[in-house]
Write a structure and sequence with these properties.
Structural class: alpha/beta
Bound molecules: cytidine-5'-monophosphate
Largest sheet: 8 strands, parallel, barrel
Order of helices and strands: EHEHEHEHEHHEHEHEHH
Distance between the termini: 13 Å
Radius of gyration: 17 Å
CATH topology: TIM Barrel
CATH class: Alpha Beta
Strand order of the largest sheet: 1-2-3-4-5-6-7-8
Strand content: 15-25%
Number of strands: 8
């Protein structure tokens, strides 16, 4: 069975990322490549991970005019990634174009959208003219994402229970901010344990430092996969 854990490869250099990935096997976890690592490793690095059999989540959060996002999604899908994402605030026509881009590619990854960044407070939203409770904004954007034909959203695990009730059962809820009980929180504020997040309705868990900074990443992954199996 494939793992529900997506490890965030938040490393500043390719060498560090490659030495972390070397002992891993595709059945242990999926891998997330974000903007920092993509800027240093590019499509070649992503292709290397795909060739090794890993499910890669290309986390570049596209947000632009529909035609540009369509072409970016098509080109990204051609890299053979398992999942990619856009910003739902790009709107319905941008998300529909993103979906068209994926469908035009020779391989169709899951396409998900970011709703409201978890780093945004209600004050931040008010500053950009979006005053109102975050939860209702997230729900509205998730519904727009589903109506635009996408496969899911990135959201906080705190938002998962209400989204699980609103959205189709197959709609993916990909949640960061996950910490095993007793782990260092780092800069994450509202966290859940892996088990709690799955019980709340998450379908995949994005985890960085608890695994990447562990003295024993393989042991940590084995323990997590075991915990989530039951
Ligand atoms: O190390 P940690 O487990 O906190 O890493 C979480 C990962 O999820 C990071 O790559 C971070 O950028 C990403 N992320 C997040 N919160 C979001 C969206 C993405 O923590 N709302």
């Amino acid at each position: 069975m494939s793992s529900k854990i997506i490890v965030a490869l938040d490393f500043p250099t390719l060498e560090q990322a490659l030495s972390f990935v070397k002992p891993l096997k595709p059945e242990m976890c999926r891998l997330k490549v974000g903007k920092e690592l993509f800027a240093v490793g590019g499509p070649q690095f992503v292709g290397q991970l795909v060739d090794q059999g890993f499910d890669v989540f290309l986390d570049l959060k596209y947000h632009d005019i529909p035609n540009t996002v369509k072409k970016a999604c098509q080109a990204s899908a051609e890299l053979g990634v398992w999942m990619l994402n856009v910003h739902s605030m790009g709107g319905r026509s941008m998300m529909e174009a993103a979906k068209e881009g994926v469908l035009a590619a020779s391989h169709q990854p899951k396409l998900i959208a970011v709703t409201i960044l978890t780093s945004h407070s209600e004050q931040d939203l008010e500053d950009i003219g979006l005053a109102g409770p975050i939860q209702s904004r997230v729900e509205k954007l998730a519904q727009l994402t589903q109506a635009s034909g996408l496969d899911g959203v990135v959201c906080s695990a705190m938002e998962a229970p209400s989204l699980r009730k609103l959205m189709a059962p197959s709609f993916e809820l990909v949640t960061p901010g996950i910490r095993p009980a007793g782990a260092d929180l780092g800069d994450q504020k509202r966290v859940m344990t892996p088990r709690e997040a799955i019980d709340a309705g998450s379908t995949f868990l994005v985890m960085g430092r608890p695994i990447t900074q562990s003295d024993d990443p393989i042991g940590a992954l084995e323990q997590l996969n075991e915990e989530l199996k039951n």
